[in-house]
Inverse folding.
């Protein structure tokens, strides 16, 4: 079924009402907040369990009990008190420098909010120096902020809002594997999957290390099969996978994009205008443009030369824009006469010895 919720289709409302009817005794016994018992949130449980109403009801009822038993509404009140600023929620000052995340970093091509996590940058020693209760409390604050925000955006846009996640494993190694850390992450995953279903559209796992298969075998059993199907494990060159669903304007430069957030897309990594093309490889960088948008670029290679071709794909197919063989730099401006995609193709397949680093600037304006 589609993600459209305005208007909510009769079929969606049928399932939502079925779930609400089955849970009416639980719902009437406690004053749950609106964003938890809204049609949008009930739809997440219905979709998350593939319209299996027995499973959806079991999960929904357990979530309501978990909220009541653990006084989760008090967590939300504290999120509300700081004006829904996720950087000011309790424990944010403690865990943000340890667990590097940008929870809402622009949007993918379908409008899903991008969530970036640098798992290889976790300061394991610092994280484990804090009680697990504090870590779980912090994550519940984040989850309450997130589900409220996603449901609010859903109501405003008329589309069920979810997350496009990027899990960067660069730096993950055996030094990070400990029973305590696994316990911390597993408990966090359990709380998320059981109480906040259907909040993820896709999860890209990039810079996958050799140890990943062991870590994945630990994480997979606690995840719902529907969630597992949304995980895209990108071995080797991951840019192609990201570019299929995320515009480069929404990607930080260290993930192959051109985003330049004023304070950095993530505070722990500097935004550098760099594209790396490995030995004997090609890289296609697609740039989605609207009519009238102008893109300006000024690139040069750190060393050596590379082949570059450019084309614009509009209503009449791909039209050539530029072709350069064995070039070391390129500077130009292009303005789109219609909606379409400008492709930059970097070809280093002729080089069997040296990878290439393209350094420079790309700026888009109307």
């Amino acid at each position: 079924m589609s993600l459209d919720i305005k208007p909510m289709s009769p079929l969606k409302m049928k399932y939502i009402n079925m779930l609400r009817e089955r849970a009416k005794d639980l719902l009437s016994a406690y004053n749950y907040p609106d964003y938890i018992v809204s049609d949008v949130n009930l739809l997440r449980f219905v979709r998350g369990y593939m319209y299996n109403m027995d499973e959806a009801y079991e999960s929904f009822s357990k979530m309501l009990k978990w909220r009541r038993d653990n006084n989760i509404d008090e967590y939300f009140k504290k999120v509300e008190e700081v004006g829904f600023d996720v950087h000011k929620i309790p424990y944010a000052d403690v865990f943000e420098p340890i667990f590097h995340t940008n929870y809402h970093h622009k949007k993918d091509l379908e409008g899903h909010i991008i969530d970036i996590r640098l798992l290889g940058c976790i300061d394991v020693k610092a994280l484990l120096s804090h009680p697990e209760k504090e870590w779980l409390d912090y994550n519940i604050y984040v989850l309450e902020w997130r589900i409220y925000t996603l449901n609010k955006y859903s109501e405003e846009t008329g589309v069920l809002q979810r997350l496009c996640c990027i899990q960067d494993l660069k730096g993950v190694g055996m030094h990070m594997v400990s029973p305590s850390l696994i316990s911390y992450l597993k408990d966090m995953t359990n709380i998320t999957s059981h109480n906040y279903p259907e909040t993820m559209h896709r999860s890209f796992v990039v810079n996958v290390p050799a140890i990943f298969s062991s870590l994945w075998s630990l994480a997979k059993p606690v995840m719902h099969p529907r969630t597992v199907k949304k995980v895209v494990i990108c071995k080797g060159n991951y840019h192609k996978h990201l570019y299929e669903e995320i515009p480069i304007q929404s990607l930080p430069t260290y993930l192959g994009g051109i985003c330049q957030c004023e304070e950095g897309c993530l505070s722990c990594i500097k935004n550098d205008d760099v594209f790396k093309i490995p030995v004997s490889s090609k890289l296609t960088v697609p740039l989605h443009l609207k009519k009238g948008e102008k893109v300006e670029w000024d690139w040069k290679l750190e060393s050596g030369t590379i082949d570059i071709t450019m084309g614009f794909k509009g209503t009449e197919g791909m039209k050539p824009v530029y072709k350069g063989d064995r070039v070391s730099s390129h500077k130009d401006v292009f303005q789109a006469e219609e909606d379409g995609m400008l492709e930059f193709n970097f070809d280093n397949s002729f080089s069997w010895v040296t990878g290439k680093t393209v350094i420079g600037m790309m700026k888009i304006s109307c």
Observations:
- The domain at 73-255 is CATH 3.40.525.10 (Phosphatidylinositol Transfer Protein Sec14p).
- The chain has a mean pLDDT of 89.
- DSSP finds 13 helices and 13 strands in the chain.
- The radius of gyration is 23 Å.
